[in-house]
Amino acid sequence: MNTPNFTPTKCEACPIRHRAVCARCNADELVELDAIKYYRSYEAGQTVIWSGDKMSFVGSVVSGIATLTQTMEDGRTQMVGLLLPSDFVGRPGRGGAAYNVIATTDVVMCCFRKKPFEDLMERTPHIAHRLLEMTLDELDAAREWMLVLGRKTAREKIASLLSIIARRNTAPTPDKNNDIMVFDLPLTREAMADYLGLTLETVSRQMSALKRDEVIHLDGKRHITVPDMGRLLEEAGDDNDGGFLI
Hints:
Strand order of the largest sheet: 1-8-3-6
Number of domains: 2
Helix content: 25-40%
């Protein structure tokens, strides 16, 4: 179940080091985290955890993207969130998972044994404070996403999702002169439609329109080049700092 081209690494060299739950840790605290961590790899489509299951670990997404889904009583499933690199999985102090977590692409997670991590949080304020920051950021993102779903046009919704993925991808190819971003879209058109509350036809039509207007370049259905990130943010109704335009 190992993901190709991934080599376990020390915390100091981790690609998400400065965005993850360990971002505020000093050298001694990183040593303690190293002692309780291990890596898990999941193939695209594989379940990381089912809603309600007991979690023996918490951790951060190192690479890849996963979805958070919730299954209703009649069997219908709704995507309620995305987990991108550096996002935290699990809730210290809680026994079970609140949502299904499904790997959309090949995913590598840096996992921490849950009880030792909870003990470390109690004596390491840097970790507890950083987790609080990430939780508040997640709350802000959820509120902003309510605006995306409730008030934005279909074109703005698509542009918003593309800009989020482009900015959070661990392996974009930025060009400082032209503000170019290159990434592989991890979601199918069907998944995008489900997440954005649109029809499949609308998603396909708006993606084609963004391509026609040269906001994005498409190589196949998944490989995307954004020639001007500022323009994509404008299409999303966002400013260049990622905040919403008023």
